[in-house]
Amino acid sequence: MACCGKHICLGCWHCMTRHECPFCNTPAPRNELEEKEQLLNRIEKYNDPVAMNNLGSDYKLGQFGSQLNYAKAAELFQRASELGSSGAHYNLGNLYYNGVEVEQNKKKAIHHWENAGTWMLGANLRKLNWRIEILIVQLSIT
From CA 2, how far away is CA 135, in angstroms rounded? Predict the structure, then answer.
């Protein structure tokens, strides 16, 4: 993914000889701290939901210079989902399903996963729909 949140194919990424974003020409981060700084800058300046989702994922996994912090991840996913990020809806659905830093709520998980479905294609969408259908059946039984 480019610094400005646009997806770039892996082949194009490896073929780039310049060390800058192919879309906005911003110099590529040299380390994890610079990458985190770029994300924070995009959130502050542009209220960028893609950057919020990416930073939330970093906090959820404790990677790229971010300490493991599910509360911060949930907050960022919530903000990004309110701005229309399908990826954030998917991640927030997972947190609600598992009850991580939010009260476990499978109906909210379904809601967020259904919103995330607009972003997913092919096998991933079929897998998500299958997961939602099973959860709906389980909820109707109990």
Answer: 35
